[in-house]
């Protein structure tokens, strides 16, 4: 018996899903921004073989980005600045789009575009200041807070790539990634950023006495993991990404943020779900990504 063929076009599904992901991450100006970054001529900060390009160009960044936000929230002053001045609840996609553009511009864009991205962020930081719920003053331009945000990001991006990336880095390449990110950190006003994985771990550990699971941090974690506004079709894959991010969080962060700690499930079901979500996004977006890389290599 010959079974009827279902009217499913895999290429059409791939294009539709990839387009939706691209639109969510890049926003309405995504096509123009891609041209600004990948098609514009000029020298780049990082050569094509640098580790930062492998990490920041991989879909494991979806997991790394969520982990970074959770980890960053544990610093009460950094969290107070986000809670008061950020529009992550009112416009979470806009915040994602601005962050992704900054990472793309500084990692892949020509030097003048990368410098403009740095200048925009530093301009925003100069305007963000206030008083935390515990009475302490904060300023986003404070090098100490900037360092914490940087450490949380690169530790998260690297951890996610090593678990879910297409080609995990060797120990030497991991040091190379931390070294690469140090250039961007210095441009943002961070003195003496870590240059090796060992230095990254040492600097992160030095912040432990300052960290706490404040009500603002726990509210942010709940919003990111449970309450983020998503279309129905995106909820299942997003839940898998969120579970993967939680699974990468250090054990000592779980209680302050009220995060579950289920090592057996995280190491089996959670990891498989994370792989499935990351691989699905990679499949859907790989055609567009390849096109962008081809355009860059043709220059």
Automatic annotation (TrEMBL):
Stretches assigned to coiled coil: none
A single GO molecular function term of this UniProt record: oxidoreductase activity
TM annotation in the entry: none
Domain of life: Bacteria
Ranges of residues in domain ER-bound oxygenase mpaB/mpaB'/Rubber oxygenase catalytic: 53-263
The name this protein goes by in its record: ER-bound oxygenase mpaB/mpaB'/Rubber oxygenase catalytic domain-containing protein
Organism expressing this protein natively: Pseudofrankia inefficax (strain DSM 45817 / CECT 9037 / DDB 130130 / EuI1c)
